[in-house]
Amino acid sequence: AENVILVGISAADPITGFAIAGDYVLIFKDHSTYMLTQDKNGKPILTPISDSIGCVSDRASIGFEGRIYFVSKEGLYAFDGSKIVPISKEIGELIKGVPKSELRNSLAWVDPKNRRVNFSLTTGPRSLNNEVWTIHVDNGAMSRSDLAINSSVRYKDMTIVGYDSDPTTNESGWHNIGVWNESTLVFDPYPP
Predict the structure, then answer these.
(1) In 53-76, which positions are buried (b, 16+ CB within 10 angstroms) versus exposed (e)?
(2) Strand-pair partners of 43
(3) Residue 86: closest CA among 120, 53, 56
(4) Where are the alpha helices (DSSP H) in the chain?
(5) What is the distance between the alpha carbons of residues 38 and 43, in angstroms, rounded to a whole number?
(6) CA distance 110 to 154
(7) What does residue 78 show for φ and ψ, rounded to 5 degrees?
(8) Predicted TM-score of the model (pTM)
(9) How far apart are CA 56 and CA 32, in angstroms?
(10) Cβ(117)–Cβ(134) below 8 Å
């Protein structure tokens, strides 16, 4: 059929998500990445980007300022439109310590005002995310916070997050919603 694109041939490498930035879409699989663009006539073009780096889930990637940031089983990466690069070797080593079965719960969102990309992940054997790793886009620095963010959505000029009020619990799901206060990294009650 003309409306179907075959993305790789391995059934053992399922599609795990999509992300958009600029005029391209990345298609992620467990262990590979493809870029979808189109020619001047609107015909889709599928380009293999990596046969060894994929993304853990559809919630673990986010586009910001023409790049796509994502969580892979091998580390945190950014795609700039031409190549995948690791955020840092140190972060890659930290990711390797996260239980692979829990990486699928990872979540990404942006703080456009302060030019930060945030990742919520599980850093131990539990079902809830318990840390937020923030990449400061201006200087490449990373900070870590003990926060249990399990869901997020951008709405107007704010990010609404679902969070566990006690990140030490081992329960699944989230119990509260709040506004991610992008200047102080604290929660404001929602609605504001």
Answers:
(1) bbbbbebbbbbbeebbbbbbbebb
(2) none
(3) 53
(4) 89-96, 100-103
(5) 5
(6) 8
(7) -130, 145
(8) 0.84
(9) 11
(10) yes
What's the CA gap between 33 and 148, in Å, rounded? Answer: 28
What are 121's two structure tokens?
């992940």
pLDDT digits (tens, 9 = 90+) for 82-139: 999 998 888 888 888 887 778 888 999 998 888 999 999 888 766 678 888 999 999 9
SS3 (DSSP) at 90? helix
Q: What is the pLDDT of residues 178-192, one digit of tens each?
A: 777 655 445 555 555
**Peptide linkage before 191 cis (omega within 30 of 0):** yes
Contact, 87 vs 77, CB < 8 A?
Answer: yes
Task: Tell me how far apart the terminal alpha carbons of the chain are, to the nearest angstrom.
Answer: 49
